[in-house]
Each structure stands twice: as structure tokens, then as C-alpha cells.
Amino acid sequence: MSVLQRLVPYPELRVLISAGASGIGAALARAFVEAGAHVHICDINEDALADFRDQHPQVLATKADVSDREAVATLFRAQAARWSGLDVLINNAGIAGPTGGIDAIAESDWQQTIDINLNAQYRFASHAVPMLRQSRHGQVLCMASVAGRLGYAWRTPYAATKWAIVGLVKSLAAELGPEDIRVNALLPGIVEGPRIEGVIRARAEQLGTSYDTMRQEYLKKISLRRMVTAEDVAAMALFLCSPGGRNVTGQAISIDGNVEYL
């Protein structure tokens, strides 16, 4: 097999992506569809699911709240019924969580961030691993963040979950490696799109400055002085699901232009 051939994803992978109807999740889903995978997405947003289904009718699109364990169980039953197994789980679902000092963050907001960003990754992995054991290319990709390697003032719930995801990944990689199941974390940096716009706006309000000023401050944190795109993240996921990534596991891989600080 040539080097170029090793960069092509394994054929006809069965891929499940949480929160796959918009943002990074949708970019991941589109990339795997283009690579010839059998893709199943879930999302809580019915309109986004309908739009994605219209554009990609071959994709199985299921409404599911990742914080609802019964909904997650139903989702995996649908996966088994449609494709009789799973090769790649992409734990993508997450929320930005609140912006504020630790003494101002409501406990309900803290708990919601932990439940969606971290506990949902456990729920999905616990259902996926028995199916991945039957795969020849079993892999889990967990969406963390550059906030999983750097401190992030006024975003403590979010950062705490992303650091925890890296710990989850490294532990699962050691646990599942003997069964030839690979587990890696993707750490996107500052990703273009509506979510980061909302984050920047909230941070600007927290510090009493303008949106434009805060946006420039964010760009100054990046060595390449530009945001990454959702497609950049999808490209890394495709590589990890190719023969070229077969010995990559237990890694927290940044796709961020080298964010120096947050």
C-alpha cells in the first residue's frame, strides 16, 4: 500500500456522530459521506436534522437528547437495526456552558455543562464499545477543545469538561488497546462559526469591551493569526480513520493553529 493509499479512510465505515446536524458535527458527517461511509447522526434540533436529511438522504438522522440515557439506548438500537454494528463513534455533542466568575455560575448551569459535555460521552461509549469489539476498525473520537490543554478564565465548567475528556480518552485507549480499538481526542481551537461568535460576545460583555476588540484579542492568541474551520477538524478525523492512523491512539490532537493562551 502506497503512502497516498494509506491516507484514504477505510471503505464503508459505519460511523455514528452525536450532534451531527450542524457545526463541526455536520462537517464531520459530510466528510464521511463523501468518503463512502455509512453515516448515522443524531441531534436535538429537529429543523437541523430535517435540513441535513434533505441534503443527504442516505444518512440516518435520529432525534436524540444526549443527556437522556433512554434516548441514547434507542439510538444505538437504531444503529444496530440499520447496519448491524459500528466502526467509528464520534462523541461530538457539547455546549459552550455559562460565562462568568466561579462565584456567579449557577449550579444548574454547571451541572448541565457536565452532563452534556462529559456524561454523554460516557453514555455513548458504554453503548458503543460492545459493538466496536466486533469491528475490524473500531475507533472512538472524542471532541475536546484547546480548552482541554489550557486554562480558560470565566469558562470553568466548559474547560473542566474538556480536560476530563482528555483523561477519559487516555484511560480508554489503555483499556481498549489490547482489543485493537483506538481512542483519540480532537482538540479544535477557535473555530469559525456562530458558536464562537456567541462566546466572544459573552466574553466582551464580561470584560466590558466591544465585540470587534474581543475578536481581535482572540486572533492574537493564535500563532497563525486565523481561526480554524469545521472542515479542518473533519480532515483530521478522516486521517485517523485511515490506514495511516492505525497506530495513533491515546492522543489529544490539537487542530488550532497553535493557540498560545486563552
From TrEMBL:
<dbReference type="InterPro" id="IPR036291">
    <property type="entry name" value="NAD(P)-bd_dom_sf"/>
</dbReference>
<comment type="similarity">
    <text>Belongs to the short-chain dehydrogenases/reductases (SDR) family.</text>
</comment>
<protein>
    <submittedName>
        <fullName>3-ketoacyl-ACP reductase</fullName>
    </submittedName>
</protein>
<dbReference type="GO" id="GO:0016616">
    <property type="term" value="F:oxidoreductase activity, acting on the CH-OH group of donors, NAD or NADP as acceptor"/>
</dbReference>
<dbReference type="InterPro" id="IPR002347">
    <property type="entry name" value="SDR_fam"/>
</dbReference>
<dbReference type="Pfam" id="PF13561">
    <property type="entry name" value="adh_short_C2"/>
</dbReference>
<dbReference type="GO" id="GO:0006633">
    <property type="term" value="P:fatty acid biosynthetic process"/>
</dbReference>
<keyword id="KW-0560">Oxidoreductase</keyword>
<dbReference type="GO" id="GO:0048038">
    <property type="term" value="F:quinone binding"/>
</dbReference>
<dbReference type="InterPro" id="IPR020904">
    <property type="entry name" value="Sc_DH/Rdtase_CS"/>
</dbReference>
